[in-house]
Amino acid sequence: MPTCPTCFHKLGYTRDHGDSPCTVRQSLLCTQCSCYGHERDTCDQVTHVWRPGTYEEIIRSLGGQYILDRWGIDTETQIVYHSPKYRPLTLEDQEREIAETNTIEIRYLKGRQDKQIRAIMDHLKLKTEHAMKDNLTRLRWWAISKGKKLRLVQEK
Q: Is the pTM value of this prediction over 0.85?
């Protein structure tokens, strides 16, 4: 009888679901991509952003293991992110999670912003729209898909 690894690991139960999917696995929410069915450690959808799962991970990532040791902190306090079921991640939310070092600067001369954005979109083979606002939004979504964010810089 094959045992479901998710049920065994999460609940300590030995279960065989047969041909049915594991309901425990379906209920897992990934904090990387905000999808159900897997956890952050096994996510292959979003690889350009690391979302901490606990507050202690944030402290460790900043080189603060000695702080945890000094104060005897051995807990794991889960960070609760917004579920896409209730509020999907917006363009701004996703850009906020991308580091400043992964910024693409678009430089343009005064009055030439639209022309520069269209030229970049043509180079990237992205479809352009009539309104510059729509083109900029499409370019921002493209950048997020590559793990980048945009910054517009007007040159003098």
A: no
